[in-house]
Write a structure and sequence with these properties.
By secondary structure, this protein is mostly helical. It is built from 37 helices and no strands. The longest helix is centred in the first third of the chain and has 18 residues.
């Protein structure tokens, strides 16, 4: 707070706002005596929309009491704030990350730079997308530091054990994919340091990651770790070194650990399961399968450890037990079972396929087996899954269709089409088949989906039309444009919206005039504006400028979408300022 503020009292926010005194309002953000003054200054800066205020407002996000008001002001400023907000994702103050992501989401921002994608999805806890972005960052970085450094930052956060384990898993994948080079050495050093983490689950994750790496240059630091004062670290390193060619004398502990699996102390039995997985002896498979079904209270961690251990051992005979776990209600146990089944890969398919038959299994087992085959994704799973499409049980058939979509093999297309045609009048099994066709894509799937969209000669067609429009957008074939244009007039708003979104995803200029005409439909305006921005045709500029005046249902989001579309088409950044847009557009004519 300045000397003059202390001398003359609180700043007059209304007066500063009337004068559009941005500098004065920014100074008022530091007025410590009255939070209402700071909140009023924040709101005024948002309404004025001057870009000078963006960085000071982002700094104000660090104050919890001001966070909501500041977020609203930045949303009001809109697109000009996006670049600085994206940079704030890398701020050392992690407290502001989540609110920054919320603001960016409301501004319809999507990260395009791989590094920002990784950080963005990490903050949103979307771990699969985050991992993909990190791999892409490593691939396109010269030394990989841009991929590794954000993960090292996550590892320093001692409060979030799950995110540290996730970061270690991603580092392990980067190390494996990078081969023997400076990047793999950097990754190995980070992972070795994680062995000393205070949490055993984090140490276990680091060991698993190191076991997947074959870089002989990590031997020296591992051998040094044999002298670590932590007994667990020494045991883990003994298990790693043989994986990279260092033969050490190994004490046989398998039988003792198998007995320990039955220990009444769940902590000791859980540790035994983990150690059996690290040793990898096939004699442990049956006892570990039995441990999967421990029904005692608080046995979840033991069951998770048993599931993970079976994946580390990799014997496909354990697949049957792991699939049965998928019927349970313990989410983390099921996740561990899925990961282990994926690790086993095609070798487990034969053991799982027989579980699809209701003659020998209950429906929940068959559904779980179908999901497991989809997760594994091996071509050998196609035939049993295609056969399961004909199951009399709709749940089993739907699970098979979803699995075929995940595998994405063209060989499944005709069977999915036949299943839809057989059941379209009854209304079950159909939506899942449509979604799977969209995931698989190809000319035959496109043809079938177009037919589904166009012909409404059976009940429940609006649900099929909606799913078909979404699937066609996912495929992105320009040949479907005319059918999707026609779907804009379909007598159902959700179908209209899905068609508009699909036309934007395809990006064909033939849709421009029709989409412009659809801007007069309030329920479609947001989707249409977004689609026009994706297509990028200047014919839409004048209509989008007019849309900035819209008041009505979701008008704030509609105007944001229109402003974003205008920026995408023209390269200009006038946010929602209709006066500037019109002036600029007149100059272009």
């Amino acid at each position: 707070m300045s000397f003059f503020q202390r001398l003359f009292g609180p700043p007059n926010i209304e007066k500063l706002k009337a004068k559009r005194d941005v500098k004065g309002l920014i100074e008022a953000l530091d007025y410590e005596r009255d939070i209402s003054v700071r909140q009023a200054a924040t709101k005024a800066l948002g309404e004025i929309g001057d870009e000078q205020a963006i960085d000071p407002l982002i700094e104000t996000l660090k104050n919890k009491d001001m966070r909501q008001a500041t977020a609203e002001a930045l949303i009001e400023i809109g697109i000009p704030a996006v670049e600085s907000l994206a940079k704030a994702l890398k701020d050392k103050d992690r407290d502001i990350h989540e609110i920054v992501v919320e603001i960016l989401d409301k501004l319809n921002w999507q990260p395009k730079v791989h590094e920002f994608k990784a950080i963005y999805w990490m903050i949103k806890r979307q771990r699969k997308k985050c991992a993909t972005a990190f791999y892409q960052t490593a691939r396109f970085s010269l030394a990989g530091a841009r991929a590794v450094d954000p993960l090292v930052t996550v590892l320093k956060d001692k409060k979030d054990e799950d995110m540290r384990k996730f970061a270690i898993g991603v580092l392990g994948q980067i190390g494996v994919q990078s081969g023997i080079n400076e990047l793999s050495i950097r990754v190995a050093e980070v992972l070795i340091n994680c062995i000393r983490d205070q949490h055993q689950s984090v140490r276990d994750e680091a060991i698993r990651a190191l076991k997947k790496m074959s870089d002989i240059r990590i031997i020296e630091p591992l051998v040094a770790a044999l002298k670590d004062e932590d007994e667990n670290v020494r045991k883990f390193v003994i298990q790693i070194l043989p994986k990279i060619g260092v033969q050490l004398e190994k004490t046989e502990e398998v039988e003792r650990l198998i007995i320990m699996l039955e220990d009444e102390d769940l902590g000791r039995s859980t540790d035994a399961a983990k150690q059996l997985g690290q040793i990898g002896d096939i004699r442990a498979v049956k006892p570990l399968c039995k441990a999967l079904f421990d029904k005692r209270a608080y046995s979840e961690y033991k069951r998770i450890a048993a599931a993970k251990a079976l994946g580390e051992i990799g014997d496909p005979s354990a697949a049957h037990s792991l699939v049965h776990i998928l019927k349970g209600t313990d989410r983390k146990v099921k996740e561990a079972a899925v990961e282990s089944l994926k690790t086993m890969g095609s070798s487990a398919v034969k053991h799982i396929s027989g579980m699809l038959e209701l003659k020998y299994n209950d429906r929940r087992t068959a559904m779980a087996a179908a999901r497991a085959l989809g997760e594994i994704g091996a071509p050998q799973a196609l035939r049993p899954l295609i056969a399961a499409l004909k199951s009399e049980d709709g749940g089993v058939s739907n699970a098979a269709a979803e699995a075929l979509g995940e595998i994405g093999d063209q060989q499944a297309v005709e069977s999915l089409i036949d299943t839809f045609d057989t059941n379209k009048h009854q209304g079950y099994k159909c939506s899942e088949c449509i979604e799977a066709l969209g995931q698989i894509g190809g000319s035959r799937a496109t043809e079938a989906l177009t037919h589904i969209l166009e012909y409404d000669t059976y009940p429940n067609h609006k649900f099929y039309a909606y799913a078909a429009a979404k699937a066609l957008g996912q495929i992105g074939d320009p040949q479907t444009v005319e059918s999707l244009i026609a779907a804009l007039k379909y007598p159902d708003s959700k179908v209209n919206e899905a068609a508009a979104t699909a036309l934007g995803q395809i990006g064909d200029s033939r849709a421009v005039e029709v989409l412009i005409a659809a801007l007069d439909k309030s329920w479609l305006m947001e989707a249409v504006a977004t689609a026009l921005g994706q297509i990028g045709d200047s014919r839409a500029v004048e209509a989008l400028i007019s849309t900035l005046e819209y008041t009505g249902h979701r008008d704030g989001q509609v105007r944001i979408s229109a402003a974003k579309a205008l920026s995408e088409i023209t390269g200009q950044e006038f946010n929602k300022d209709i006066t500037h847009w019109r002036q600029w557009w007149e100059e272009q004519k």
